[in-house]
Amino acid sequence: xxxxxxxxxxxxxxxxxxxxxxxxxxxxxxxxxxxxxxxxxxxxxxxxxxxxxxxxxxxxxxxxxxxxxxxxxxxxxxxxxxxxxxxxxxxxxxxxxxxxxxxxxxxxxxxxxxxxxxxxxxxxxxxxxxxxxxxxxxxxxxxxxxxxxxxxxxxxxxxxxxxxxxxxxxxxxxxxxxxxxxxxxxxxxxxxxxxxxxxxxxxxxxxxxxxxxxxxxxxxxxxxxxxxxxxxxxxxxxxxxxxxxxxxxxxxxxxxxxxxxxxxxxxxxxxxxxxxxxxxxxxxxxxxxxxxxx
Length: 294
Known about the structure:
This protein has 2 domains: 2-212 and 282-292, 3-Layer(aba) Sandwich (Rossmann fold); 215-265, no CATH class. Helix 2 (42-52) runs antiparallel to helix 3 (59-73) and helix 2 (42-52) crosses helix 4. A 5-stranded parallel beta sheet has the order 2-3-1-4-5. The chain is an alpha/beta fold. It contains 15 helices and 8 strands. Helices cover 48% and strands 15% of the residues. The protein is globular, with a radius of gyration of 19 Å. The mean pLDDT is 87.
């Protein structure tokens, strides 16, 4: 069994990847986990390279990646978690890789004939779009969409937040798809629905990562300069993990990154625009209500 968690951005995916998934004994967690992409599991990197690339499909490479999946499945059940599958951006190719639709198409090719389950984590679609826009501001989304309004109305990313359409798209490509909401992840400390989906009895407690810096008028973000990004990527994950335990080093690191980053305040969407957007994607709210049984 290969379980793939397709997390919409800001649905506790980082917390699950760092605090929960690596410690579920019944599964081998193959990624993605925090830190540089260079420190990820080889299988994750091969899958990501195949799915995220905008190049034409190379049948030889596709066969190689699928054989890697089957080889690992001979030894244990696998668990992979990835939020870049629901957006056009990825850490491998920036904004120049495949669309999220192509990524999911390619993932379905790899999983054809493989016993698998897909878990999708969702949240309020307007809040999700805004949080995703704030996160992508650090990697240059404003070069394409200077405002959140433009991103929400015109980007291909925003189409994924039309949940009924997304559900139809993904259900046609995978044999079993389940959903969990960000609100339920936050409210249920025992992660009951997640344990049921994975078929496990015990699961570690969830931490809280990637907290946004909020102000009264919006969200403060730091757009890291290229030099800082490269230096952070070059730091080996074991060293990063060790340094995270030293409070003064964490403080100094955050201060340096903050000092050499461009600071921006992303204003919250106005009530008028939010109501307009909510009315345009009403079916997404209906879908969430159906999931919660209300």
